[in-house]
Write a structure and sequence with these properties.
- This protein has 57 residues and is an alpha+beta fold.
- It is globular and about 30 Å long.
């Protein structure tokens, strides 16, 4: 069972995407995330849905 909220490193490991690509996705706001201080936390299910359905909002 995967966690719903993940760090960039965890998201990269689970999805098998390089960390620098995940950081770029966060910067371009192509994944669902929130910031806590300087750290980004990604919502895994919503981000996967957005990436696969190409919902660029």
């Amino acid at each position: 069972m995967t966690k719903e909220i993940m760090t960039i490193k965890e998201f990269a490991e689970v999805t098998n995407i390089k960390e620098y690509v995940v950081r770029r996705l966060v910067k371009e706001k192509k994944v669902v995330f929130f910031m806590s201080g300087k750290r980004a936390y990604i919502n895994y299910p919503l981000s996967i849905k957005r990436l696969w359905t190409n919902e660029n909002k």
